[in-house]
Amino acid sequence: MPVRNDRKLFEFLILEGAQAGLSWDTILAKRENYRKAFAGFDPKKISRFDARKKKALLRNPGIVRNRLKIEAAVVNARCFLALQREFGSAARYFWSFVNEKPMKNPGRPVPARTAVSDALSKDLKRRGFKFVGSTIMYAFMQAVGMVNDHSMDCFCYRKKT
Known about the structure:
mainly alpha; Endonuclease III, domain 1; two-stranded parallel sheet; 59% helix; 2% strand
């Protein structure tokens, strides 16, 4: 379903970055641990995580203990706050890439990336975001309802748009 809540968008951004190279099941199993470890996905709080807090996260068995992914979450929190300041909301920024409405993509096979995810990835990287490659951003777009990849005969295809 389309997500336009900034906190939820940030949550999916963090989780999609953490998922890079891993199965989505792994991240879903750790989602509640992430919520606790990452201050309820509050970008203001995460943006202030210091070296001590990041070191503690590296010892937390409930999350993916990857130094680069943890650092990316902190960097991305700062960049996310900058998006909110610039656009009034992060939702306004993200949804502008699909003209404010979900893209329908009932084709098979489902792509791993598209021209839109390429453009979103490129712009986020330019703004300093980390772990936002085109494939990660396409998965993000699917997760937040910016793209509808359900087959046309699926009840969710009609429901999501």
